[in-house]
Amino acid sequence: MLKTRMVEAKTGRDLHTHDGWDGDPVLVTTTHGRYAGNFKSQILATAGTFDVVAPNGNDGVILTDVIISAEKKNAGLITLRFSDGVETETMLLSTLTDAPVNMAIAFQGHWQGWQAAAFQVVTNLDFVGCVSVGYFKIDQSVTLPYDEWDERR
Does the predicted TM-score (pTM) go above 0.70? Predict the structure, then answer.
């Protein structure tokens, strides 16, 4: 065991620890998504465009997880995308003609939208399904406008 403390440089506060199984403190580390994450779900029953997660004003949205399930439906489509009403970027397009879709994605990259971009689900027909998304929101000061966001890709 190291007899030391880790403190945050700006405030001098101790970094978070938790008492371990042996009673000694253990430094707790985690991702921002695990710390500040939320989830929302959208039931898919009718054709349409649904804002599953919308940012506050010009803030941004970062995705942590997506779970999709939908029945087989001739000519059915599910689209997952980011859109701010002007610019739109498709993340996933799944056809339901040959088989149902059942998938779970735990994102490991930086799946972030741009300023004011909502995470949307678009369906073209009425069918039974659900999309659930894990996410957290970030302030506009650390979220890029679309042109800068697109340039980074």
Answer: yes
